[in-house]
TrEMBL record:
InterPro entries: A-glucoronidase_C_sf (IPR037054), GH (IPR017853), Glyco_hydro_67_C (IPR011099), Glyco_hydro_67_cat (IPR011100), Hex-like_dom2 (IPR029018). It comes from Ginsengibacter hankyongi. Residues 1-19 form the signal peptide. Pfam families: Glyco_hydro_67C, Glyco_hydro_67M. This is Alpha-glucuronidase. One of its GO terms (biological process) is xylan catabolic process. The keyword Hydrolase applies. The lineage of its organism: Bacteria, Pseudomonadati, Bacteroidota, Chitinophagia, Chitinophagales. Keywords: Hydrolase, Signal.
Amino acid sequence: MKVIISSFFFLFTSLLLHAQNGHQLWLRDKKALPVHVICKQNSPTLTIARQELHDSWQGAPGATISLIIKKDRAVKVDGFKLNENVIQANTDKGILYGVYELLRNQQTGGKPKGGVDNPSYQFRILDHWDNPDGSIERGYAGNSIFWRKQDPFTVTDEDKKLWQEYARANASIGINGSVLNNVNASPMILTPDYLNRAKVIASLLRPYGVKIYLSVNFASPVSLGGFKTADPLDPAVMAWWKNKVKEIYSIIPDFGGFLVKASSEGQPGPQNYGRTHADGANMLADALNPFGGLVMWRAFVYSANNEDRAKQAYDEFMPLDGKFRDNVIIQVKNGPIDFQAREPFSPLFGAMKKTSVMPEFQVTQEYLGHAVYVVFLSTMWEECLQSDTYQQGKGSIVARCTDGSIFPQKNTAIAGVSNIGLDTNWCGNHFAQANWYAFGRLAWNDTLKSGQIADEWIKLTFYGDSSQKSGEADYTGDWTKNFLVPVKQMMIDSREAAVNFMTPLGLHHIMSANGHYGPGPWWAPKGIRPDWTPPYYHQASTNGIGFDRTKKGSDAISQYHEPLSSEFNNVATCPEKFLLWFHHLPWDYKMKDGRTLWDDLCYRYDTGVNQVREFQKIWDKAGPFVDSTRFMEVQRKLREQEINAVLWKDACLLYFQQFSRMPIPYDIERPVNNLDDIIKNDTRRGDGRSH
Ligand code: BDP
């Protein structure tokens, strides 16, 4: 009887909850209450601001809201002042951000902080790794929303609608820039046909305050201009770029600038001509400067030499500190290697004191289960932003080192590698939308806590539906207790769960080759660069496991400021979450809890798997509160995630056990997969890259 009632309840409630396909993101249609909007000025952006208020107002019915553009020195760039029913800003964009903040507060029961609200970073940018043929490098949500293979230069009404929806979503969370193409850039992007398509994209993004940028291939003068060289100090090369930039601005007058991956992973760059990164970046910066454009120059560099890969970006860029033009920003990935589930912060943060530096986060889940896993990345970014570099004394956290609080850098910026594609729900997994949302929110306010971000996102994305009564939401009842609270907890725990079942205790880069999904600690074919193979990173042998980056090893610890450097160097003080990142330790090393390293590793893998099983239960219980489409889609993802978590655990424990030669603790569930089968079946869900 109970079963019948509860399944009836489920059916009934899911019918009540309108079908949702996730396309509306956190901006679902509302039944709005009446509101009067007073605004003396006019612009396309203000028209949007006004419309948003009319479409979504949930405050006092019939209230009057004044939108005022007025110079105020306390209000910076895109900032605004929100008091009572007045939104004041220096620009129409500031007004729009204020409107979204007000509406968000109404819908989530948040209290506007009142007074001035300035963004932490001036440039808050999504990097799309989209190729001109419409494919996306490390994209898991369908093809590009910007480019396509068939009929590539026709712009349809559908394209325009989608670009507008994309712009609106970004504006609603404060994102104000989009790099439209892959950092592994095709020179083609600078040809007139592509520039003209970019122009149309720019025209739809503009009213929402989103500027466009392009990734450029450093050898473009060779491939497009027919030159023999792309040497940045060659006057003809400089002139080619100047002309190209002029042409771009004649097509897109408010073009944002270039993102450049140069002399990195086989991409051409200044080093091909014996020049430095500064020579290359400055040459482009000079071309962009007359138009106010920026160069975001990436520090993601490493070569196949004998130097620890984790040290190379720092070694290469530190000597260039202070040698870059004002309109260059060095774009640094959060960690020193490559977007792993956990890395310590990159030692370049805070260390480059005379150069603008911007963090680069990866929103797309390249190393975190693609569009399969439910992993809320906000906690990972918060961990990075809050890490103390000690570069200017205690409290020199990464956020303050990059947002202008500590160093007077001319430009402040932050980038997220987008997880957006043509999938109906944009991100492939409903929960991956939360990462897009969180990136925007943290870029606006780098002191926000992940708990608040998750809270807002869940309320906006799942509370009620369009048939709901208008007016303020009620967050006091069952919905909060039985849905919001457990789902939020799941999100907050989700990244640690992934760390546990993939790479606990500071392990890193042991995933399956090419596709970077699933385990692959054994992968090391002959002839391949060692730093592209997992054994280079885990260093497992019968003697132990871990990468020795102490003074006795690669000495990467010396790139960190004291007291961190000594703390990481000493195995007794090194945080356990980074233990095998910095230390090579014997299998019977005694951990803080008294267990051997081997046992601890086993328990952590097991904990990770069990966490995912808990998430499944949390979600199963969420059924009555979610429309059936999204409910079942997430349920499927979690099942797949559980299968992969077990695979990770079995693969890593059975593989490492060959070296530890110790038993898997008997209170842990036995592996259910055989190592040779896992290796044989490793399908390398790849995208054709070689590592
Ligand atoms: C790695 C990706 C690769 C990117 C590279 C980058 O595997 O596809 O091109 O980063 O950031 O994480 O340039």
